[in-house]
Specification:
By secondary structure, the protein is mainly alpha-helical. The protein folds into 3 domains: about 160 residues, no CATH class; about 70 residues, Endolytic murein transglycosylase (Dna Ligase, domain 1, 2-Layer Sandwich); about 250 residues, no CATH class. The chain contains 18 helices and 10 strands. The protein has a 3-stranded antiparallel sheet, with helices on one face. The longest helix is centred in the middle third of the chain and has 54 residues. The radius of gyration is 59 Å and the shape is elongated.
């Protein structure tokens, strides 16, 4: 009995080795032999088991390394495609035909081993009782491999077996593991990059914080030496102390905005700083710059235009005093510096710039362009376009730039009263309304302006001459309230005694009250008016006879006496 078991185990080992180390008959010199079917006789066996036909095979246990070596070193076997081993199919086999048992291999000599040998060889003892004393457990059924092997067409070589499903699964797991490893590596790189960015930001923030801390400990940078020439800086409407400090630093007045700001917050006078232009010495200490900003004498480019003022100077007949015109007032406000360093724009330069035919460069508004082009005397073409009021301009600009800045601001002021929509009330263009308002400004007291505006509208509707003494005085170098017969007889585009209608330009800069009165005149039939005393009492009437009586009353008060004589 033991000899039979020994021979059976020997045959089992040989079959196992054959399956583990497959060979081609051609490689071993058996090319001339006909290929045998799987499970055929063992030629090496000479005992009474030689006639045994085996139709089973125990599947050997392979490792990935053995499987790779088998398929890579045997030149007779087909190659597995690189990159996609799961797509390779062995010729002659189809997925799912058979399934390998995962039962572990038993140790030689054990009962389970004997049972496997018996099952592998399909051996049945003539004397079943011979194994009864072994007390073997019942054998489990084993799925068997197909008996025949596919061969290459037209050749006698065995076709290699398809790699096991376990190898494919391990290959897929290996690729998935590689992808996961690459993903982990990429994530680590990203984390390192993000960490580096955060580190740089932290270092930068720390450096900036240290710089600010050192700056606070040492105080803001400030000039120590003597100040330099004056620099013009502008304080915008609504500027805070910090914004003014930054402007000072940008202009080179102070070494840093902090130096000015620290001095400004300690000076209560900063709350009274007005928007405008200031001449402040350059390279000043912060405290000195604040003090200079608060001094009224350092305010530059600020001009106040009285109501009824005209562009050029004139002389009062009664007092002999010079009535300064708008151009001279602008020139005086343009001066920057002191003594030898003082720089100003002259009235003559402004007059020359104001006579230019380039009206767009002068900032003339579109609603006045056509009328201004028709003015015969270009030196008077800008009359009335610079409004009465307080204005700021940059004194460092050219005369043309200064006029443009003032005319633009004045046009905006005029338009804010509804000038562009006033033609429905007085049947006049915006420029004609401005011209008529200049007459109202020169002829009436504030409480009578709307009535005088109505007289102008009524007379123009009747095609009557206006006959205003203010229009006679406009072209005269020496002016007064009363006029002479000779002055009234002069014919020019402004004398309303010599023509019907309005003057060719305004005769002064009207106030907004006069402009509003002309835009909305008081309803009434009046055609005449005259001031009858030096207190400004004005009489209005639509009767010429009554008007003559009022004129006599004015003459008796002496208000109509001329200093020039008749």
């Amino acid at each position: 009995m033991n000899d039979r078991w020994t021979r059976a185990e020997e045959r089992y080992r040989q079959r196992t080795e054959e399956q583990r180390y497959r060979r081609s008959d051609h490689d071993w010199g058996d090319a001339g032999r006909a290929p045998r079917a799987r499970g055929g006789r063992h030629a090496a066996s000479t005992d009474d088991w030689d006639d045994y036909e085996d139709d089973t095979a125990v599947i050997p246990r392979y490792t990935d390394e053995q499987e790779a070596a088998t398929y890579s070193t045997d030149p007779t076997l087909p190659r597995v495609p690189e990159g996609h081993p799961e797509d390779w199919v062995e010729p002659g086999y189809h997925t799912g035909e058979w399934e390998q048992s995962d039962r572990p291999v038993a140790e030689p000599g054990s009962r389970s081993r004997r049972r496997e040998v018996a099952e592998a060889t399909d051996w049945h003892d003539d004397d079943p009782a011979a194994f009864e004393d072994e007390d073997l457990p019942p054998a489990r059924p084993v799925r068997r491999r197909p008996p025949e092997r596919a061969t290459r067409s037209g050749s006698g070589r065995d076709t290699p077996r398809r790699p096991s499903g376990r190898g494919q699964s391990r290959g897929r797991r290996s690729r998935a593991a590689s992808r996961k490893a690459a993903e982990r590596k990429r994530r680590r790189r990203n984390l390192w990059a993000i960490g580096a960015v955060f580190a740089v930001l932290i270092v930068a923030a720390g450096g900036y914080a240290g710089y600010k801390l050192i700056g606070k400990l040492n105080g803001p940078e400030d000039f120590a030496g003597p100040s330099g020439p004056a620099v013009v800086v502008r304080v915008q409407p609504g500027d805070t102390a910090e914004q003014i400090a930054q402007t000072m630093a940008d202009k080179g007045v102070v070494a840093s905005s902090g130096a000015f700001y620290e001095a400004a917050v300690r000076n209560s006078g900063m709350t009274g700083v007005q928007p405008g232009y200031y001449a402040v010495p350059s390279h000043s200490k912060g405290a000195d710059a604040v003090a200079a900003l608060l001094e009224k004498k350092n305010r530059v480019g600020n001009v106040v235009i009285p109501e009824g003022k005209r562009l050029h100077d004139s002389t009062d007949v009664t007092t002999g005093a010079r009535n300064e015109g708008i151009y001279r007032k602008i020139a005086d406000a343009s001066c920057v510096g002191t003594a030898a360093d003082k720089k100003c724009v002259t009235p003559e330069q402004l007059d020359a710039a104001g006579s230019s035919t380039d009206l767009v460069a002068l900032g003339v508004p579109s609603w006045a362009l056509d009328a201004v082009r028709q003015v015969p005397d270009h030196s008077r073409q800008l009359e009335g376009l610079i409004a009465a009021g307080a204005w700021d301009f940059d004194p460092t600009g050219t005369p043309t730039d200064i006029l443009k800045q003032l005319i633009g601001a004045s046009a905006h002021s005029y338009e804010s009263t509804g000038l562009l929509q006033s033609n429905g009330a007085n049947n006049m263009t915006p420029y004609q309304t401005l011209t008529a308002a200049s007459l109202v400004e020169r002829e009436a007291q504030p409480n009578d302006m709307a009535k005088v505006a109505r007289v102008i509208v009524n007379r123009m509707a009747n095609k009557q001459k206006l006959e205003f003494d203010s229009t006679v005085n406009y072209t005269l170098d020496r002016t007064e309230v009363a006029t002479t017969d000779a002055d009234r007889a002069r014919e020019n585009p402004w004398n309303t005694y010599a023509m019907v209608g309005l003057p060719v330009t305004p005769i002064s800069s009207p106030s907004l009250e006069a402009l509003q009165a002309m835009e909305h005149p008081t309803p009434g039939p009046w055609l005449y008016f005259v001031t009858v005393d030096k207190q400004g009492t004005t009489m209005f009437t639509d009767s010429f006879a009554e008007h003559q009586r009022n004129v006599v009353r004015a003459q008796q008060s002496g208000i109509l006496d001329s200093g020039k004589g008749n």
